[in-house]
């Protein structure tokens, strides 16, 4: 089975538009996916996502969001099935995880301990820093193992 080709919708006339850039980035992700040995189930999942995008009648902002959503879903499929990720993937992911997993609880504990919930916000940058460090180390580990492809997200 082969991957379905992406059919851009009038993005040729929008050279500097966000939508055209999103289409080009998604096209690069699909081109990289074609070069990798994919299982039949992975190919069918990716084809389903591309078919939904090709069949969409959305325009402008709604189409831009759909293209980004499709790209993120395909990146997740590739990460789960063949364990490859784009450059900066873990940094982006772990920054958000660090804020929610470490920063918010730390801020709540600090606020409750000092009886001043205004200190809740101090935990957010601490969690951001922890998440960024974890993400950078995971990105470096993925690069050392050759599991990254050169598309910055």
List keywords for this structure.
membrane, 3% strand, mainly alpha, 2 domains, transmembrane, Glycine zipper family protein, 153 residues
Concise summary:
This is Glycine zipper family protein. The chain is an all-alpha fold.
Tell me what you see in this structure.
This protein is mostly helical and 153 residues long. It has 2 domains: 18-83; 89-149. It contains 5 helices and 2 strands. A two-stranded parallel sheet has the order 1-2. The mean pLDDT is 87.
Write the layout of secondary structure elements.
Layout: H1 18-35, H2 40-55, H3 60-82, E1 85-86, H4 89-114, H5 123-144, E2 148-149
Parallel strand pairs: 1-2
Helix pairs in contact: 1-3, 2-3, 4-5
Q: What characteristic shape results from the CA principal axes? A: elongated
- N-to-C series of helices and strands: HHHEHHE
Strand content is: under 5%
Structural class: mainly alpha
Helix tally? 5
Distance between the termini: 28 Å
**Average predicted confidence as pLDDT:** 87
Major β-sheet, in short?
A: 2 strands, parallel
User: What is the strand arrangement across the widest sheet?
Assistant: 1-2
What number of structural domains do the residues give?
2
Any idea what the radius of gyration is?
Answer: 19 Å
Low-pLDDT stretches: none
Number of strands: 2
Helix content: 55-70%
């Amino acid at each position: 089975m082969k991957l379905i080709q992406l059919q851009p919708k009038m993005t040729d006339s929008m050279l500097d538009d966000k939508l055209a850039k999103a289409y080009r980035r998604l096209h690069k992700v699909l081109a990289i996916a074609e070069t990798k040995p994919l299982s039949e189930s992975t190919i069918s999942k990716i084809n389903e996502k591309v078919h939904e995008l090709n069949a969409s009648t959305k325009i402008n902002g709604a189409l831009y969001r759909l293209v980004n959503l499709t790209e993120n879903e395909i990146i997740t499929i590739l990460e789960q099935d063949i364990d490859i990720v784009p450059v900066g993937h873990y940094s982006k992911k772990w920054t958000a995880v660090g804020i929610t997993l470490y920063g918010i609880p730390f801020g709540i504990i600090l606020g409750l301990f000092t009886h001043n919930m205004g200190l809740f916000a101090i935990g957010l940058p601490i969690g951001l820093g922890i998440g960024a460090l974890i993400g950078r180390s995971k990105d470096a580990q993925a690069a050392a193992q050759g599991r990254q492809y050169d598309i910055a997200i």
